[in-house]
Amino acid sequence: MGIRIFVTGGTFDKEYNELTGTLFFENTHVQEMLTRGRCRLDVEVQMLMMLDSLEMTETHRKHIVEACRDCGETEIVITHGTDTMVDTAHAIAQAIDGKTIVLTGAMVPYAFGSSDGLFNLGSALSFVQTLPRGVYIAMNGRWFPWNDVRKDREAGVFERLA
Amino acid sequence: MGIRIFVTGGTFDKEYNELTGTLFFENTHVQEMLTRGRCRLDVEVQMLMMLDSLEMTETHRKHIVEACRDCGETEIVITHGTDTMVDTAHAIAQAIDGKTIVLTGAMVPYAFGSSDGLFNLGSALSFVQTLPRGVYIAMNGRWFPWNDVRKDREAGVFERLA
Amino acid sequence: MGIRIFVTGGTFDKEYNELTGTLFFENTHVQEMLTRGRCRLDVEVQMLMMLDSLEMTETHRKHIVEACRDCGETEIVITHGTDTMVDTAHAIAQAIDGKTIVLTGAMVPYAFGSSDGLFNLGSALSFVQTLPRGVYIAMNGRWFPWNDVRKDREAGVFERLA
Amino acid sequence: MGIRIFVTGGTFDKEYNELTGTLFFENTHVQEMLTRGRCRLDVEVQMLMMLDSLEMTETHRKHIVEACRDCGETEIVITHGTDTMVDTAHAIAQAIDGKTIVLTGAMVPYAFGSSDGLFNLGSALSFVQTLPRGVYIAMNGRWFPWNDVRKDREAGVFERLA
Question: How many other C-beta atoms can be found within 10 angstroms of the C-beta atom of residue C58?
Answer without folding.
Answer: 9
